[in-house]
Amino acid sequence: MIGNSVVMLDVDLRNISVDVHVVCCYFMDISLCSRRQSASVQPPLSQAVGYVIVVVLGLVIACANRAVMMVITKVLKKTTGEDNKKTEMFMTANRTVRTGLTASAVISSWLWTTAMLGASLVGYNYGVAGPFWFAAGCSPMIIPDAHTSLEVVRIQYGRVAHVVLMTLCLINNIFSCANMLLGAAAVISAITGMHIIAATFLLPVGVTVYTFVGGIKTTFLTDYFHTAIILIIACYFSIKAFTVEEVGSIGKLYDLVQAAAQRHPVSGNQDGPYLTMTSKGAILFGILHICSNFGLVIATPSAASPTSPSPWALGTIKSSLALGLENTSFFPTYPRRMTSVEVSNGLVLPYAAMAIAGKGGAAAVLLITFMAVTSTLSAQVIAVSSILSFDVYREYINKAASDRDIIRASHFGVIFFAAFSAGFSTMLHCVGIDLGWTLYMLGVVTCPGIFPMAFTILWRRQNQAAAILAPILGMATGIGVWLGTARHFYGTVSVSSTGEILPCVYGTVASAFSPIVYSVVITLVNPQRYDWAEFRKEKLGLDRVDSDVTVGEEQGAISSFDPRELKRWGRIAAFWSIATFLGHWVLWPLPMYGSKYVFGKGFFSAWVVVGIIWLWIAMFVAIFYPILDGGVQQMVQVGRALRGGKGGSSALSITDGSGDVLKVEEKQ
User: Fold this and answer.
1) Rounded to two decimals, what is the model's pTM?
2) Which residues cross the membrane (predicted)?
3) CA-CA 20 to 30 A from 12: which of 32, 487, 548, 565?
4) What is the mean pLDDT of the chain?
5) Of 34-38, 351-355, 391-395, the least confident
6) In 3-state terms, what secondary structure has residue 330?
7) Is residue 567 part of a domain?
8) Which residues pair with 148 in a beta bridge?
9) CATH value at residue 142
């Protein structure tokens, strides 16, 4: 049967989906694997387009990355000392990624497929409050001087705590990758007819190739180009939406959404309209989502220098278009509404794009979906490979691992996790789990480590037993509450009941906050007083001279390990974290929720205009700020070096274990 599949691939790509489907069911013996996308919506693009985008474009990007990065790597190695064959460069880019490129990568990380598809999903379900609460859940984090945050746990509490938190981090990344792949594969399948399982397995291929070659700095540079394309297309959609005859203006869109509320009032919204912040479902989702995102940030083990809105606008516009145009003949599902399966699979965004731009809109969504999932998946793959190489291989398999050994282990980690995440996502699909289910329940598994990890860094009294037991008990509590409330509210524990908003909110909150109680109670029995000076005695790098070297201007460079810099950026991060929380969670939405305000046409117009302006600003920041911040400077520096050192000397900043900086002048 497998041989026939290969032959058929050469003869006719259109039949590959049937063979992949049969193979899946043969090996997994799961009857639910036969559940297919609704056949009533004809894919606007052919399967060949899907395979070209997923396979060919992915490999082209990987090969282009390879060629470009080979040139860049050789130039930078010659002029600035950057060597991608060194572990520090592969995993952390020597912590030299500047604020501009980091800003682009951060924007990219919130442009993952879940954000674009999920914001439209909750907008369709709850109205304008859904995309707002989706965008509001974001928190910064500072990681001390380590390759992964797990190294801090190992140094402070030992190997048992290290293994526990490492397991939680791996679970976190597995579910977040599955969340992305499920949504992206469903969209690609709906747009092209490509089998969803084929899409799930083929999407990580290109990611694996270019991540394997380039390491984390390649993911930053690739993020830059992917983010630029995604934001340009998103800005195009923000204008295109109001140029089609059926919409024409923001005011007309307001009328269309109000008419949709008359046909299908929203349960839990004030008086049933979509245009209100007084939405019980949306605010429950907001609580769930901020906890989940905090868990994702805390338990994502990749490290970068601390010196370094789109879901709101895109989700609001696209969900409003889907609601307003759903009863018109050019909407893909006409004359029926979107089914709950279609909504949960994240098809609100592509259907709305198809309604206003036809095949061109479908192609644009296909492109940004591919760009988003590959860009974010590469970062996740690097994060997991760092765990497998530093926290597993170096710590438990080969303590005397050389730089080359760890690079080899990280390469294995890249390949292994890409394949595993595809297989795990396929398993979830075959038992009936989709984007909506994972979006809601994600916090149950990502949140138990939030406060134990925070206490590890901020509270020296937390003892070893608390660091080990609190996250385990928190996970057990969260899962128990999640399943128990599903049984209580819906009478059964099933895929359907456990994917509802209420059980997921209760489970997420329990997972997030119960470890506080466990940690404090266990610590009070026998509190410790950890001396932070002990941390500086640890040598985390492999080769201090080769790994911890950064190149600066003649005046010298300040090390990324400088305690004064860490403290300064810590204060800045804390200020903006508090300001963002107060603005996005208190001052802006809660008065609107409490006043039970329903948007008027003028207010809705202002709401949409502000969102569009925010989106366009994000585009300009992501595209131009990295060039202005360090990009031009580094190009000038490289150019001088290649011309033979015109313009003076360069200084190497070499840091020792205490964070002191030694300047070594080198005349070109």
Assistant:
1) 0.81
2) 48-76, 124-143, 163-188, 194-213, 220-239, 281-299, 377-394, 406-425, 437-459, 466-485, 505-526, 569-587, 607-628
3) 32
4) 78
5) 34-38
6) coil
7) yes
8) 302
9) 1.20.1730
